[in-house]
Amino acid sequence: MNADHQLLELVEAFDLRERPAPFSRCLKCNAPVRSVERELVEHRLPKYTRLEYDRFLLCEHCESVYWPGVHFARLRSLVESVSAESATSKAPPDREAQ
C-alpha cells in the first residue's frame, strides 16, 4: 500500500475531510505554527532561502522555521487530491470489498 492511500485511509478513519488544516503544525513537535516576519528569522535561514522566499512560519514551541520551498507545491497538491478523493468516497476502496 502506498503512502497516498494510507493518508486517504487516515482522513476517512478520523473524518478529517471536514476540517483540513494543512501546514498548521510543526513537523518536528506538532505544535502550532504561525506566520512570522522575515526579519525575525532571517539570521537562521540559508542564503538561497533568504534570497528566494518571503513567507515564513515559526513553530511556537521548538522554534523551527518553515517556508514554501521545493516540496510545498507537491504537498499542497497531495492535500488537495486526498481532500477531493475523500469527498467523493465514503470509504477507501480496499475497505469496501471487505
Describe this structure in words.
The protein has 98 residues and is mainly alpha-helical. It has helices at residues 3-13, 38-41, 47-52, 72-88, 93-96, and strands spanning 33-36, 56-59, 65-66. It has one domain. The chain contains five helices and three strands; from the N terminus they run αβααββαα. A three-stranded antiparallel beta sheet has the order 1-2-3. The longest helix has 17 residues, at 72-88.
Which structural class best describes the helix and strand composition? mainly alpha
Strand order of the largest sheet: 1-2-3
| Range of helix content | 40-55%
Output mean pLDDT: 83
The tally of strands reads: 3
The tally of helices reads 5
Low-confidence stretches: none
**How much strand?**
5-15%
Q: What is the quaternary state of this protein?
A: single chain
Question: What is the string of SSEs from the N terminus onward?
Answer: HEHHEEHH
Distance between termini? 16 Å
Q: Strand count, sense and closure of the main sheet? A: 3 strands, antiparallel
Gyration radius, in Å: 17 Å
Supply the number of structural domains.
Answer: 1
Shape: elongated
